[in-house]
């Protein structure tokens, strides 16, 4: 089932002791791509943009069927920072913010993979719809359930020899991409399986605050501006050592 996440302004609770591990996080505030990329053949490389309030973000543009190969569709990969043992990190979700400034909604997935015993094994998460309304959305990709195994054979496909839990133990690649599972976008590759050859689409996607998180997919942050917390709740929060603040920034 695809899920849509409304724009949020939230106060997130502290991470557990697993937060002491080096959980990958990118906010692009240093003005660099931090290793994120389309592919070496892209004619329109990704870039870091800056909003009116100074917030920096990653921008991805695709121009549909008439564009060169790496500029036809929405698919982009992380650098080495997102490799590692997600099980040891206590990773439960991949969280980010996305703003869709293009003409159509995007069905976004997070895909990840590994090479075990010389065999490629890859999975993708359940899709999240990002509306084409120019608003920032908090997007959560669940690593604990509803994972889809990428099929056997063909370009970008896997051997399917290992479970998702085994693959998460040593992530070698992470990417975000747009496409609807089961749709045939390229006849030679067959139905889209959540890794390569997604829809050839015109898109303008902004991405920010990409992180691997110990928070579960069903975690809901309290909106303290709308619902005052009772005194007991504030006492509980005061005992927590870390706070993660996530907020929708003005465009």
Would you spell out the secondary-structure blueprint of this structure?
Elements (H helix, E strand, L loop, with lengths): L8 E4 L12 E2 L20 E4 L5 E8 L11 E3 L8 H4 L3 E8 L5 E11 L2 E6 L3 E3 L5 E7 L5 E2 L14 H5 L4 E6 L5 E3 L3 E2 L10 E12 L17 H8 L5 E4 L4
Antiparallel strand pairs: 1-16, 2-15, 3-4, 4-15, 5-12, 6-10, 6-15, 7-8, 7-9, 7-12, 8-11, 13-14
Give an overview in words:
- The protein is mainly beta and 251 residues long.
- It has a single domain, classed as Galactose-binding lectin (Jelly Rolls).
- Helix content is 7%, strand content 34%.
- It contains three helices and 16 strands.
- The strands form four sheets. Strands 2, 3, 4, 6, 10 and 15 form a six-stranded antiparallel beta sheet that branches. Strands 5, 7, 8, 9, 11 and 12 form a six-stranded antiparallel beta sheet that branches. A two-stranded antiparallel sheet has the order 1-16.
- β7 (106-116) and β8 (119-124) form a beta hairpin.
- The model is unreliable at 4-20 and 224-251 (pLDDT under 50).
């Amino acid at each position: 089932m695809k899920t849509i996440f409304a724009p949020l302004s939230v106060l997130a609770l502290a991470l557990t002791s697993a937060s002491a591990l080096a959980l990958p996080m990118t906010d692009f505030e240093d003005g660099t791509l931090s290793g994120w990329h389309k592919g070496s053949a892209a004619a329109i490389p990704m870039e870091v943009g800056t909003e009116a309030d100074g917030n920096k973000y990653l921008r991805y543009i695709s121009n549909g069927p008439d564009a060169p190969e790496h500029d036809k569709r929405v698919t982009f990969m992380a650098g080495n920072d997102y490799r590692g043992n997600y099980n040891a990190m206590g990773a439960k979700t991949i969280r980010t913010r996305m703003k869709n400034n293009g003409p159509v909604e995007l069905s976004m997935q997070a895909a990840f993979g590994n090479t075990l015993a010389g065999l490629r094994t890859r999975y993708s998460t359940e899709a999240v719809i990002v509306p084409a309304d120019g608003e920032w959305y908090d997007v959560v990709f669940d690593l604990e359930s509803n994972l889809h195994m990428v099929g056997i054979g063909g370009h970008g496909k896997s051997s399917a020899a290992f479970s998702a839990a085994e693959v998460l133990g040593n992530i070698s690649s992470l990417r975000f991409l747009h496409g609807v599972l089961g749709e045939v976008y390229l006849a030679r590759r067959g139905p889209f399986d959540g890794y390569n050859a997604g829809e050839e689409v015109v898109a303008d996607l902004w991405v920010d605050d990409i992180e691997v998180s110990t928070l579960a997919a069903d975690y809901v942050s309290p909106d303290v501006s709308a619902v005052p917390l009772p005194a007991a709740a504030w006492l509980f929060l005061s005992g927590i050592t870390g706070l993660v603040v996530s907020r929708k920034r003005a465009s």
